[in-house]
Amino acid sequence: MKVQDLAYKVCARTMELLEKEGHYKIPEHLRKQISQKILEELDTIIQ
C-alpha cells in the first residue's frame, strides 16, 4: 500500500467517524477538497 493511499483512507475514515460519532455533516465537495489538501501536504505531514 502506498503512503498516499493510506493517507487518503485515514482522511476518509476520520470524516466518517466525525459524522457518525460527532454528528457532523460534511458535504461531498468539502470531503473532496479536504482529501486533496491532505494529499498535497503529505510530504510535510510525514516530516
Description:
The chain has 47 residues and is an all-alpha fold. Helix content is 79%, strand content 0%. The chain contains 3 helices and no strands. Helix 1 (3-21) packs antiparallel against helix 2 (28-40). The model has no long low-confidence stretch (mean pLDDT 92).
Question: Which secondary structure elements does this structure contain, and how are they paired or packed?
Answer:
Elements: H1 3-21, H2 28-40, H3 42-46
Helix pairs in contact: 1-2
Q: What is the tally of beta strands?
A: 0
Helix content: over 70%
Which outline best applies? globular
Unreliable segments (pLDDT under 50, ≥5 consecutive)? none
The ordered H/E elements are HHH
Radius of gyration: 11 Å
Helical stretch count? 3
Strand share of the residues?
A: under 5%
Mean of the pLDDT scores?
92
What characterizes the major β-sheet? none
Helix/strand/pairing class, anyone?
A: mainly alpha
The end-to-end span amounts to 19 Å
